[in-house]
């Protein structure tokens, strides 16, 4: 009996001694260690294994697109017929010259031919593919609307000025004419049309400029075509004539307008000429 009491007393004393330690441990776990007390060492994160990239598949790289030849000799930011006329105005000059594109020490026709290569690189051989997102012309045409007479002075105009539309599927050819001009060595023109009425087939430089004139590749959009040409053998001999001929296929035989915009005539001093323009009218049958 005395032994049992002694054991209970010993247990009580032991519990009374261990209680503060248990309380301290609980506080440490749930509250945190007192400031300045280091509980455990920092956990060391395992270092990820090194990846050998030598055998890893490489992402394909796309080379940058090739740039068109640097032939903007007049420094206006555009490769155009104006660069050709700039070169022609400096033919025969020797030494360092901005028009000496090929760097052979003299400005020649070969430099102008490099302009052609640059324009083809930009426009693409045969012209730029049509842009299907371009909106159709918004100018309505009334069939019985009378045509105004051509203005006085230099005029670039569509000929015939008024024509009845052929049947769908047939072709319609119109000329881009000039009247009362002088000393013309180059031209630029954008011909607009209604793609719901007409489909562009082709455009060609005519015989107004002297034989051997250089024509740029046409630049074709959904509702327009741009053409430019420059003479390499002097200005046009006549005051009036045909600059270019455009061929369309009739999509729908209805009224529409063939418009002219961005028209430029340049003289032998590469100076733009003052001019007016006149559109052409297609009437419904």
Secondary-structure map:
Blueprint: H1 2-30, H2 81-88, H3 109-123, E1 155-159, E2 162-164, E3 171-179, E4 184-192, E5 198-205, E6 214-215, E7 219-220, E8 224-230, E9 241-250, E10 256-267, E11 276-278, E12 280-283
Parallel strand pairs: 1-11, 2-12
Antiparallel strand pairs: 1-3, 3-9, 4-8, 4-10, 5-9, 6-8, 7-8, 10-12
Helix pairs in contact: 2-3
CATH architecture of the largest domain: Sandwich
Give me the strand/helix succession: HHHEEEEEEEEEEEE
| Number of beta-strand segments | 12
Q: Give the domain tally.
A: 3
CATH class of the largest domain: Mainly Beta
Query: Which assembly state applies to the chains in this document?
Result: single chain
CATH topology of the largest domain: Immunoglobulin-like
Mean pLDDT level: 75
> In one word, what is the shape?
globular
**Rg (CA only):** 41 Å
Low-confidence residue ranges: 16-44, 65-69, 125-143
Q: Largest sheet, described in full?
A: 7 strands, mixed
Assign a percent range to the helix content. Answer: 10-25%
- Number of helical segments with 4 or more residues: 3
Span between termini: 134 Å
Q: Tell me the fraction of residues in β-strands, as a range.
A: 25-35%
Structural class, judged by helices and strands? Answer: alpha+beta
């Amino acid at each position: 009996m005395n032994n049992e009491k002694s054991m209970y007393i010993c247990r009580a004393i032991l519990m009374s001694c261990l209680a503060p330690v248990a309380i301290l441990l609980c506080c440490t776990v749930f509250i945190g260690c007192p400031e300045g007390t280091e509980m455990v060492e920092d956990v060391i994160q395992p270092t990820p294994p090194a990846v050998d990239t030598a055998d890893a598949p490489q992402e394909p790289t796309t080379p940058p697109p090739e740039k068109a030849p640097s032939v903007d000799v007049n420094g206006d930011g555009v490769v155009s017929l104006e660069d050709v006329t700039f070169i022609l105005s400096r033919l025969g000059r020797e030494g360092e010259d901005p028009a000496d594109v090929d760097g052979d020490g003299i400005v020649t026709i070969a430099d102008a031919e490099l302009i052609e290569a640059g324009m083809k690189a930009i426009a693409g051989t045969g012209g730029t593919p049509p842009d299907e997102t371009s909106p159709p012309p918004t100018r309505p045409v009334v069939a019985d609307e009378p045509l105004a007479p051509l203005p006085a002075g230099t005029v670039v105009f569509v000929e015939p000025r008024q024509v009845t539309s052929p049947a769908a599927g047939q072709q319609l050819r119109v000329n881009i004419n000039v009247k009362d001009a002088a000393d013309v060595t180059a031209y630029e023109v954008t011909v607009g049309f209604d793609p719901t009425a007409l489909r562009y087939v082709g455009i060609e430089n005519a015989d107004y400029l002297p034989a051997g004139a250089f024509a740029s590749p046409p630049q074709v959009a959904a509702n327009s075509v741009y053409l430019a040409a420059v003479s390499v053998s002097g200005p046009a001999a006549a005051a009036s004539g045909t600059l270019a001929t455009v061929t369309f296929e009739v999509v729908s035989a209805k009224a529409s307008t063939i418009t002219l915009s961005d028209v430029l005539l340049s003289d032998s001093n590469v100076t733009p000429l003052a001019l007016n323009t006149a559109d052409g009218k297609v009437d419904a049958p």
